[in-house]
Amino acid sequence: MAVNSVNAIRKELLRRGFHNPRMAEIESHLVGSGSKACKYLIFMGLYPLPDPAVHTDPGSAVIAPFAAVHYYRRCTKTLQNLVSELRHETGIPKRDIRIFSNSRLPERSIAAALGMGWVGRNGLLMNREYGSSFVLAGMLIVLDPPNETLLQGTGELPRILSLKAPPDPHRECGKCSACVMACPTGAISTTGGVSLERCLQYLSTSTEDLPEFALAAWGRRLYGCQECQNNCPVNINRNHREPPDIPAGEEYPIHELLTRFALHPASALKEIFPGTALEAGWIPRESILRNLLIAAGNSKDSSLEPLIHPFLKDPHPIVTHAASFALYQISVK
User: Fold this and answer.
1) Helix axis angle, 317-331 relative to 285-299, nearest 10°?
2) By three-state DSSP, how is residue 221 classified?
3) pLDDT tens digits, residue range 7-43?
4) Where do the structural domains in the chain lie, given as residue ranges?
């Protein structure tokens, strides 16, 4: 099929694994652009994720399922191939097509405006069929006046004029407060919204010592938290279930990771966790090592003590403090 029309893009998104694709023309200022003379087209789809695994090994640290595979990169590569075909068929310049997934664009607000779901009390996009178990991805196409005819069917698209939330943005959640009750640190408000400074997902990449309330709830987390999603009735009762992703691994033996970090002090996270979202360059190595040491302490495994001791001399204070915490936790029976 020639990828030269809005409808063809929709069909290709479906064929390449993106569900519930939506598209619209969007006001330029809503996507951070200033040229009103151009036409801005947004295309988005949901990339479903498999159910989280059951974590039973007390000697392992856990990566949240959305990060166990680098789904953002998978979506981006898939869209890059689609864009290559689109450019070949239409002649749209490369500079005028932007691919996004977990970007600085207001993706959730755009998706809600496209009718792909609603924003739940936990701040995540919710959908009756898919819950919140998906990655958002898409592309922004900019057509200047001479190029507006390069893509067929654009005149039939709806227009997004505002991303302002409706008066009752969580109406679809009804009186449910399962995510509020499930949050281990009380980060979610009953009226909706998340206090980032209390959210374990947010704190997992911070470059400071974890506060006491986070330490008390940390468990064996290495990166991410999904308690609000795991306990959400929309997720539990969703219609679409994705089969397990074979390359995905959510549990990592703590003793192996401590050894790897110690033997390769200069290694980037992408070398320690290949194929996962921890390959992202913006995630600090010392933050993940801090998380690992806290998980090691919470395991109460005294055989880890020799592996923890070297990190008392790490150049990063958050690592040395976490190592001290881990040794103390193990000593307290």
Assistant:
1) 10
2) strand
3) 999 999 999 999 999 999 999 999 987 677 899 999 9
4) 6-53+67-172, 185-224+250-331
